[in-house]
């Protein structure tokens, strides 16, 4: 205590700061950084969890490059991203744009759109899985049947399964994006709109010249946020196709599901670690490209 | 926004817009409505597309809860979500506060290091975490499920942003009054960022309540499952009927829906805050 009392105010600050940071610094080192390094290290090793860890060099990466399942999974993962992100971006903007102009029961309407965001992906995957079942079980096919329309194979078809799995993921995230868009729209100063009204400018010009350009930061946030989400899709896919994880002929299998299978069903740790490094690289590249594209010009 | 001078009802376009949005909203809640409605139906009525059960029953709930497993999973998820939420509130705000209000060598490095954890996907860490849990005997335990989520870079960043809004003068005044740094953080700074703490609490709680991948990996006995992991396996039991799966899904979702309905405005404001700041 005497030692502490003799310190200058500045030195006392340093002592306090590092006291406060001690536990968190240890936590981040042990639970985040060390495992990151370990994952990269394991990706260069061959290991089935029981035997010895042997050095494999780039073998896992070469194996991945030559693995047709990986390329199928790679295409699926980007299909989730390239369909999911634009669809949810456009839908959420259109909803937010109009919802912002509605006064009657505004709070109630907003609640209806936001509610799915509060649900658990696993629970909802099972609800949607039930919707997609064949007659007489599934809701969608029952509705189609009542109109005399032939039933649709949703989850058991190689072409329909991926969109069918993606739909609940888009549905669940939509409310969040609507709320963020509405906040962005509210933040635009009304003086811009008043000036436009005085000039007698049409709504389309207002939308494309004022609203959208001023929403750029919001759009950047939503695009980055939702594409990271779609690249990491797992819960929905896993639970909608548990009897056959990844759907028919891997039609719905995303990268995270492949990682899970390789590591915890086949216990091929090195190979799975290489896949996680690839996922990390993809996430990094995609977010950097998006930030650059959307922030410039 | 200024209120419109004309009542909305006189405006045809406005009515159409309202109806379209209302229809969309109804579609959005439909899956949740069907989940709840089916959980209240008798087995023979499940395949009826009517939303309203003819003879509503709580039998499915009694059946699922009598089974006992859902109680355990519910309690497991609750304990894990509560502990991680408290831990995040304390540590994220303490670190955010320190990085914001203290000048000390190494500050920038610590900040950048914590920020950089946002770039590392959980999926990359699950294999090392599994190996760690295995060698430390953390597999299949509460600690094993929750240790990765005790602090988050996102929370730290969010709290740091909000501590920027606390004037340094307040902190100086407290120092002159003789409070030590821990007291200043807890009694002066923390009360001033309550809205941010509420937003963070909602995010962490919801995130841990619905977390799936890591609990799926780290647990292997039925007693340690969290609600999403338990539900996932429960649905796979070949003889389980859809009305029971919907009941299980409802049990896992209804608590968050109730919390949402009570704190609706608060949660939406929190989402906006976290979204725009994060």
UniProtKB/TrEMBL annotation, chain A:
One GO CC term on file: plasma membrane
Keywords: Cell membrane, Membrane, Plasmid, Transmembrane, Transmembrane helix, Transport
Listed transmembrane segments: 14-34, 78-99, 111-131, 169-189, 201-234, 272-294
Record-linked PROSITE patterns: ABC_TM1
Protein name: Sugar ABC transporter permease
Membrane topology of the entry: Multi-pass membrane protein
InterPro entries per UniProt: ABC_transporter_permease, MetI-like, MetI-like_sf
Record keyword Acetylation present: no
Principal localisation: membrane
Subcellular localization(s) per the UniProt record: Cell membrane
């Amino acid at each position: 205590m005497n030692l502490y009392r003799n310190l200058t105010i500045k030195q006392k600050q340093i002592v306090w700061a590092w006291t406060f940071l001690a536990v968190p610094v240890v936590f981040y080192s042990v639970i985040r950084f060390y495992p990151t390094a370990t994952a990269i290290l394991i990706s260069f090793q061959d290991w089935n969890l029981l035997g010895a860890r042997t050095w494999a060099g780039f073998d896992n990466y070469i194996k991945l490059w030559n693995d047709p399942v990986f390329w199928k999974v790679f295409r699926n993962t980007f299909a989730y991203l390239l369909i999911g992100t634009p669809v949810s971006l456009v839908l959420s903007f259109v909803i937010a744009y109009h919802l912002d102009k509605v006064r009657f029961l505004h709070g109630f309407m907003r609640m209806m759109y936001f509610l799915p965001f509060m649900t658990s992906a696993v629970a909802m995957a099972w609800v949607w899985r039930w919707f997609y079942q064949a007659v007489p079980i599934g809701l969608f096919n029952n509705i189609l049947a009542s109109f005399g329309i032939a039933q649709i194979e949703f989850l058991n078809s190689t072409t329909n399964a991926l969109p069918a799995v993606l739909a609940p993921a888009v549905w669940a995230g939509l409310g969040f994006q609507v709320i963020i868009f509405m906040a962005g729209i509210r933040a635009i100063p009304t003086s811009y709109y008043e000036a436009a009204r005085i000039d007698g400018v049409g709504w389309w010009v207002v939308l494309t010249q004022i609203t959208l350009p001023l929403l750029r930061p919001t759009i950047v946030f939503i695009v980055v946020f939702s594409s990271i989400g779609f690249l990491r899709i797992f819960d929905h896919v896993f639970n909608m196709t548990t009897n056959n994880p990844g759907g028919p002929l891997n039609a719905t299998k995303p990268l995270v599901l492949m990682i899970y299978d390789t590591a915890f069903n086949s216990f091929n740790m090195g190979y799975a670690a290489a896949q996680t490094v690839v996922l990390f690289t993809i996430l990094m590249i995609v977010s950097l490209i998006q930030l650059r594209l959307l922030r410039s010009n | 926004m200024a209120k419109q001078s004309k009542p909305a009802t006189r405006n045809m376009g406005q009515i159409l817009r309202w109806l379209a949005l209302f229809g969309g909203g109804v579609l959005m809640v439909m899956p949740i409505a069907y989940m709840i409605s089916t959980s209240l139906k008798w087995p023979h009525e499940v395949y009826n597309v009517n939303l309203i059960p003819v003879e509503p029953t709580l039998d499915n709930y009694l059946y699922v809860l009598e089974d006992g497993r859902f109680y355990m999973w519910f309690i497991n998820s609750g304990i894990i979500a509560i502990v991680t939420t408290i831990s995040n509130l304390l540590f994220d705000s303490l670190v955010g506060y320190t990085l914001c209000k203290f000048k000390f060598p190494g500050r920038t490095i610590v900040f950048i290091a914590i920020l950089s954890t946002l770039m590392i996907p959980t999926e990359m860490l699950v294999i090392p975490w599994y190996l760690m849990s295995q060698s430390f005997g953390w597999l299949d335990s509460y600690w094993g499920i929750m240790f990765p989520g005790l602090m988050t870079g996102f929370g730290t960043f969010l709290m740091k942003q909000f501590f920027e809004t606390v004037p340094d003068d307040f902190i100086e005044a407290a120092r002159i009054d003789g409070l030590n740094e821990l007291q200043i953080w807890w009694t002066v700074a923390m009360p001033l960022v309550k809205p941010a703490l509420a937003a963070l609490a909602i995010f962490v709680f919801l995130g841990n309540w619905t977390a799936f991948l890591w609990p799926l990996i780290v647990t292997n006995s039925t007693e340690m499952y969290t609600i999403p992991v338990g539900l996932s396996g429960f649905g796979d039991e070949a003889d389980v009927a859809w009305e029971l799966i919907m009941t299980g899904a409802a049990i896992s979702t209804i608590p968050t829906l109730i919390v949402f309905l009570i704190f609706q405005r608060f949660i939406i404001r929190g989402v906006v805050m976290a979204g725009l700041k994060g």
